[in-house]
Design goal:
mainly alpha; about 70 residues; 2 helices; about 75% helix
Length: about 70
């Protein structure tokens, strides 16, 4: 249950970072570096979420059930 909450929160933060990059792109007209920094944060969070999910499967925190 805790892992589900963590995953949902991470996804919300990733979407927030993506939205902030869009806002920075619109405001700076493509001239600033804030858009690139926001997208770098989004990529870092996405990779972290992927590694968290992989660790959850490896340590059996997330059960691996097959298709039924």
């Amino acid at each position: 249950m805790v892992i589900k909450i963590i995953v949902v929160l991470m996804l919300l933060v990733i979407l927030g970072s993506l939205f902030s990059a869009l806002v920075f792109l619109y405001r700076d007209q493509g001239q600033g570096t804030r858009t690139a920094k926001a997208l770098t944060i989004r990529i870092t969070l996405s990779i972290s979420l992927f590694l968290l999910l992989m660790a959850g499967f490896y340590f059996n925190i997330i059960p691996s059930t097959g298709l039924r």
